[in-house]
Design goal:
Length: 155
C-alpha cells in the first residue's frame, strides 16, 4: 500500500469508493436519505474542488484506490486545521489503513503548523478518531445539527 497525493484523474474512482463506503459501513448509523445527501456532496467534481483548498491524499493497493483523507485550514486560520473526507473501502477496514492515512495527514504541513486540529466525525468513525488521540471539542459528546461529532486534538 502507498499513500500519495490526490490527482484529478483519481476523482471518479475515489467518488465511487466513498459512495460504496458510505452505503456499506455508515448505513448502520445513518438513514439512506442522509447517506445519499452526503454522496451528493462527494462527487468527482466536488472532490477536485476540495483538492484545491486542502492537501488531499489517496491510499492505493497496487493501482486501486482503497482510501483517502484530506487536511486543510480551519476557516483560513494559520494555527488551526481540519481533517476531511477520511474513508477506507469496507473490505480494507480493520487492517490499519485508516491509521496510516491519519498518520500521513499528521505529517502534512497543515497539521504541523497548527496548534489545534478539528475533525467532524461521523457516528460510525468517532471511536476510531478517539483512539487516534482526538477528543470531543470543548468536552461536548453530542451530535451537532449535521449529525456529526466535533472532535479536536491539540499539539
Amino acid at each position: 500500500m502507498v499513500i500519495r497525493r490526490f490527482k484529478n484523474e483519481d476523482s471518479a474512482e475515489l467518488a465511487d469508493a466513498i459512495a460504496k463506503t458510505l452505503r456499506t459501513t455508515n448505513s448502520k448509523d445513518y438513514s439512506p436519505e442522509y447517506i445519499e445527501n452526503d454522496i451528493s456532496f462527494l462527487t468527482a467534481e466536488k472532490l477536485i474542488e476540495r483538492s484545491v483548498w486542502t492537501n488531499f491524499y489517496v491510499a492505493c493497493d497496487d493501482n486501486k484506490i482503497i482510501g483517502c483523507g484530506a487536511i486543510g485550514p480551519y476557516w483560513n486560520k494559520e494555527d488551526e486545521s481540519s481533517l476531511f473526507t477520511i474513508f477506507v473501502l469496507p473490505e480494507y477496514q480493520g487492517k490499519g489503513i485508516g491509521r496510516k492515512i491519519i498518520e500521513s495527514l499528521e505529517q502534512d504541513e497543515y497539521f504541523l503548523r497548527a496548534k489545534r486540529i478539528e475533525i467532524p466525525a461521523s457516528i460510525t468513525a468517532v471511536d476510531f478518531y478517539r483512539k487516534m488521540g482526538y477528543d470531543y471539542k470543548n468536552g461536548i459528546a453530542e451530535l451537532d445539527e449535521e449529525q456529526l461529532y466535533r472532535l479536536e486534538k491539540f499539539r
